[in-house]
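Please review this one.

:::
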Amino acid sequence: MSEGDVCFQSCVKIMPEAVSQNDGYEVFFEKKEECGLFAIFGDPDAVQKVYFGLHALQHRGQESAGIASSDGESIQCYKGMGTVQRVFRSGSDTLERLKNPIAIGHVRYSTTGSSCAENSQPLLAEYSRGQVALAHNGNLVNAGLLRDEYEAYGSIFKSTSDSEIIVHLLAKPTHQSKPDPLGHVLNHLQGSYSLIFLFNDHIEAARDPFGIRPLCLGRIEAGAYVVASETCALDVIGATFLREIEPGEIVRLDRDGLHSRHFVKPSDIQPAHCIFEHVYFSKQNSFIFGENVHELRKKFGRQLAREHPVEADVVIPVPDSGTSAALGYAAQSGIPFDMGMVRSHYVGRTFISPNQELRELEVRLKLAIVPDVVRGKRIVVVDDSIVRGTTTLGKIRALREAGAKEIHMRASCPPIRHPCFYGVDFPTRQELLAHNRTLEQIREFLEVDSVGYLSLEGMLACAALPAGHYCTACWSGRYPIPVNTRMNKFAMERHQLYMFEEFPTAHE
């Protein structure tokens, strides 16, 4: 083995699910969740509590799930394709076999690397200092360059995920000789990352210096510490929210308790929190970046009503992420709120052929119209965002068929004109509805009577933190971290396609 090589353990169990399941069909959706992380140290029921924590974070990813646990000496891991419930099927003794007092878990949506068993997490590896399991939420913009460098020296990669490069960096002997090996490794990474490492006898959790992705710290009454992507997962197991892990901070959990250190100088940190977490990703009852998601979304809706008023009979949300903003819009405008669409919570990922008729049928499967709410009425439809616009168009046509007299489309964030390189699976620039389109052209495409977006200034004014503490790249094109290489979701696949022709730099 060359320097930096790692050996993946045979004890990793992966469910034999289909790798892609799309069988040549286009995978079509508006936007995708990210990943969810959960960890607990020093609890006899740690694995069971991780399982419940992952359930609470299921909205952040449904492609795969996994749990790694340790008895203080060795790590075992079980993961597979599908939801938490599917991977850890009821009646299975998997959780019992994993039972240990230290555990981490992961639910995945792929932002780099295809959806396949090899890319599921936690990643389990063995190197000179023992075993390590890794769970990652985010996207590394320099992963391709680092991988090319390590492959040139003979390193062998088992996956096409950007997360695996972190393990190779950690295993490098020259990195291991540093006073703080993990901190040294993290300084090699560029991009967004919330990370949880399970070593044989302790857990370490870290957040990138910009704090792009959320990560919080909690504690259960018995004393065990908990780390989670969102506070909603703490609530499920009865843990008390202590604080968010700070940008550029590493938190270590071991037998001696909680320890904290920074791998960058706090004075050098300029937060760039992803405000799209508030717009769409995070669950309504979570506390993210200092404020409640539901309450902030209502503020977005109120501001949207101020900026784009209209005479109408009813305000309806696109459930579920548009509901809070719709409540705010209705309260500010005085227009009654009602549920004109009902979402099916039993529809998972969307796999459909590249056929517009089938796409519209898929929309009807996921969102059913309540005819009595919309028939003969002037409707304000509030959604969190509009990405491609194709599924939005399907919803609009379904409302027309149900008898809506007028349809006024409102989005509780600005027009998305730029791709995200930090963990949100937006389409290419050319596929974005708002790219190079005027508001009138967007209205015509959506076949609505009017369209209105919340302004960037209005959105930032609603948030608690100063405007400069948020990443707004997908709306403004101002990227806090330079992206100097061709990137796409499949950048480390041998059959890669170059999707981006323009390379944004910091604050361009």
Observations:
- The chain has two domains: 7-21+31-267, 295-462.
